[in-house]
Design brief:
By secondary structure, this protein is an alpha/beta fold. It is built from 7 helices and 5 strands; from the N terminus they run αβαβααβαβααβ. The chain has one domain (about 5-125, about 160-170): P-loop containing nucleotide triphosphate hydrolases (Rossmann fold), CATH 3.40.50.
Amino acid sequence: MYLRPTCIKIYESAFLLGEDMIEVLVGTIASGKSTWARKMAGDDWIVVNDDAIVNSLHAGDYTLYQEDLKPLYKSIEDHILHIAVAMGKNVLIDKGLSLNKKSRARWIALGRSLDVPVRARVFDIVAPETHAKRRSKESRGHSYDYWLMVAKRHIDVYEPPTLDEGFESIEHYKWHDE
């Protein structure tokens, strides 16, 4: 890959200034993560969203997700993060599976390798029925019962983030139903 000289300068100064940030969103389906991500994208953050990557590779059909393509999906996420940081951008990680220490470790390790601080933003976890009801408004071809199963599975594996994981800070965000 080729970076223009101006990009290289941005890349070098980004690490010297230490102003970049990676923020990992932590919460179950329909907890407000993507709503927050849209707000931050409007504030010039680069958003890494696994659903958007799957949709872009499968002509907008999320149901075509393939487990055996996971290395491709992840490599695209990593590439976006690396180039965005090289360009001096803040990066927001909007993935539905940043629910436990193991799944978040990847982003913390990438942040450390790039000398960029990583913070967690935690979204409230409520009854799985509430999450499923919110998600079924944009069903992506799945039923309420499917989303209820997903919400329950997310809640079962959830581990609250801690500073011991390597986060610089942890902030909490409360969803407000309209």
